[in-house]
Amino acid sequence: MNRRDVLRAASGGLVAVIGLGAAVWSQVPVLPKRPAPTAGDAIGWIRFKDGAYELTLPRVEMGQHIATALKQVACSELHVAWDKVQVQLHDTNLPRVKATVGSESVAQFAEPLAQACASLRVAIKEGRDHGLVTVTPRPTSELSAFKGEGVVGVSPELVQGRDIVQGRPLYAADMVGADMRHGRVLFAPVTTDVGSRPVKWNAAAAKAVPGFVALVEEVPGPRGHTVGLGIIARHPDALSQIAEALAIEWDLDSAPDILDMEAAIDIDKALSPTGLKNAVMNDPVEEGAWDGSFRYDFAFAPHGQIEPRAAVAEWQNGTLTVWTGTQDAFYIRDELADRFGMAPGNVRVQSMRVGGAFGGKVLCRAEVEAAFLARESGTRVKVQWTRSQELSRAYHRPPSSHRVRFRLSEGRLTDWDHQQMSSHIIFTSAGIPAWMQAGTNLAAGDPGVARGMKMPYQVARARASYDLVRLPVHSGPWRGLGAGPNNLAIECTIDEAAWTLGADPVEFRLRHLQDPRLKAVLQRVAESSGWQGHAPNQDSTERKGRGVACGIYKEHSYAAVVADVSVAPDGTIRVTRLWCAHDCGMVINPDQVRAQCEGNLAWSVGLVLHDGLPVSNGGVVADHFSETPIPAMPEVPKMSVNLVERSHAPSGAGETVIVAGPGAIANAIRAATGMRPTRFPVVPSEFAL
């Protein structure tokens, strides 16, 4: 059956035939706007009425418990009890706020909120109980929250904590309603760079599935040259049955340009004696013999969030409302307005609690699909991606290939060269067409790929550079962007330099560090773990080793980690203990900062042992977590997190420990086995006896 015959075959069900001019995704993408928050903005976040306060959270709550931290700031600055401030999640009727990315929520939003609350407190004390308050800026030293007063520095009851335990609806996927329908859009299993469209399907078989409501033809996909087929059902369980019954055949304009991604980013084929195109450090490093040269390869890796993306859309009188778990409701609004040719004021996006994102829920995908299906069906529609869609259609951490070399003299590093081939992170292929990406390559490279390549160690001559390849899979922001893989490559090589000299790796690092805060966390973790060197402890059945690593995240937050591992005769690796020291400046909520550190440590286990998304012939071939696993509870060891609290301004905790945890685990494997892990995730058989 072809596309036009579907109208006749689906009698009794709703079928919309939509021309490609309707809501086609533009070749020129909508770009996110990310204004820095000000105290003037913040006065719109806090409201006093009838003796109580309402805080409209300017950030997205995705498990980092920023709702709790900012409520702590508000209560402390207003001088009121915890139950006097109620928190609600924002929608796009709030003046635009910056996307929830980059571990910036406390660092950038706590002081503006405190300034606004201080001015509101004074206004109320003066007897004003209505109207708009003008913020009078105060030195941070005069702000109660930044003096550690009130509920700052303690760990009160979590905002929405009881709701989570009691199973109350908080997420877009939780939304229900008798009038709501469930939708899905099916696209060809190829990159959006390849034009594709459905050409044949079995509408009669789909209609026979109980719960079938409609087929929606010619749903426009990203950048306008991919076309999908929409399905709508009365209940979500019917969607997969309908999709299978359709048995869609696809027409493709071409094949992906690159089928072998490992070959496309092979660093040794691209290695340059003067460094690659984009320089991060650019000292004139001399060629010649190197004392150490190591190659590290990182697989394409998914975000691994538990909640697949979901959105609910409803049209009423020419306006569109969307409920979604997104890191940037305003960007979603702008995208939807652009897609449907509407004024932004006619689109409202309500942010919902997000069940994990890690950089992966910024672009507009499920939202536009829900809006399109809702418009064509005339009903409220929920779209929730399957795990298979989440793995194949979302963007993920790009694969990368690194060559790191060093030269030593008189017990010190004298020359350093780190070259990397990867794909795009900030200028993601999931949102930017090839022609625009080529321009960013020339003008700016990709700061996300570069993050973490500038190492903190003092070396006489240091060079770091990278180049980029557009791949047939979508790559983009992943927790810490390039900081995880880049710091892992650096910390492994620093460790090898210490091995080369027979030096203690903690002492060797301290020898090359000048930053007092980084030295302090390294010394603290060495003390708390009882560090006595990383000499392996061998016996007949089990090889044990200890490793250390440290680093700076975004030049502001500091972490050091010690790891213990055990390696079985068949090469199976267990991380048995982790210690962490962390410095993110002033701490608003110690329990939640520790929780962020623990999350990063668990992620570190995943980066070394699990994180890989299998691809074949230029496409993802995984459908479930079983094919791209995340660490299971038994694999997460006992952790000790030591917060090095300082008077410095808060600098962000959400992603910091990713700069040190993976390196410590990899270095512990080296200590246990005498073999340097160089491919991640590791292949256990390579470490078998």
How is this structure best described in words?
With 689 residues, the chain is α/β, with parallel strands linked by helices. The protein folds into 3 domains: 3-30 and 173-254 and 309-384, Aldehyde Oxidoreductase, domain 4, CATH 3.30.365.10; 39-165, Aldehyde Oxidoreductase, domain 4; 261-301 and 397-687, Aldehyde oxidase/xanthine dehydrogenase, molybdopterin binding domain (Aldehyde Oxidoreductase, domain 4), CATH 3.30.365. The protein is 27% helix and 24% strand. The protein has 19 helices and 26 strands. The strands form 6 sheets. It has an 8-stranded mixed beta sheet with strand order 1-7-8-5-15-12-13-14, with helices on both faces. Strand 3 (52-57), helix 3 and strand 4 (85-89) form a beta-alpha-beta unit. Helix 15 (483-501) runs parallel beside helix 19. The protein is globular and about 75 Å long.
